[in-house]
Amino acid sequence: MNIQERTLRADDIQSLASLVWQLPSAFFIEKLPLAVYACDAQGRILWFNSRAADLWGRSPRIGDDSELFCGSYKFYFADRPVSRQRTPMAEVLRTGIPIRGAEGRVERPDGSFIWAVVHIAPIINEDGNTAGAIGCFHERVDGGRLEVPDARPQDWMLARDDRLAATSGPASSRSTRTVGYCVSTGSFVS
Asked: What's the pLDDT score for residue 136?
């Protein structure tokens, strides 16, 4: 069965979270050179691999409502702090639209930081609703950052309208967007 075509029942996401580390594939997830983690529909972290903990500089508490959407100590886009509710994971859980290539700075508890490129994909259940999401991110090897130009307000409005239209159709019609962070709106734009 093609895993991309599979839909999940509402309770599958919790079962999947506990099963993922019992499967032989858990070994491969743990050994990936990418940081990988998953959240449920409310943004609670279900699991993460050791690379995620390394890049975050910490191990967040699984299922803790005070650590929603990501395990980073602090997160910045366009050199501005971003609340957990404004992270790429939160955006995907709200809209159901994948985010590819969002770039930000992850600050660790010890004050060090990395530039990270973030990719988030929603998990869509049998009813077409977002049941959770899988996130992966990696450190920029050059240690720098890409310049993301600020979008004009009218560009943000068009991108927002496109995203809202994309979420009104069936899950299979949702498109993947490469996004940037708009400083003036404090939101992601495609």
From this structure: 96
Decide: helix, strand or coil at residue 107: strand
Q: What is the CB-side half-sphere exposure of residue 52 using CA atoms within 13 A?
A: 23
- Dist. CA 166–CA 175, nearest whole Å: 7
Q: Is residue 173 part of a domain?
A: no
Residue ranges of the chain with pLDDT lower than 70?
1-25, 143-190
Domain annotation covers residue 59:
yes
* Residue 143's CATH number: 3.30.450.20
pTM of the model: 0.68
pLDDT at 170: 46
Q: Is 128 left (phi over 0), alpha (psi -120 to 50) or beta?
A: left
175: in domain: no
Q: For residue 158, what are the CA distances in angstroms to 8, 22, 189, 190? A: 31, 44, 9, 9
Residue range(s) defining the domain that contains residue 115: 3-149
Question: What domain count does the chain have?
Answer: 1
Q: Given this model, what pLDDT does residue 148 score?
A: 43
Determine, yes or no, domain membership for 184: no
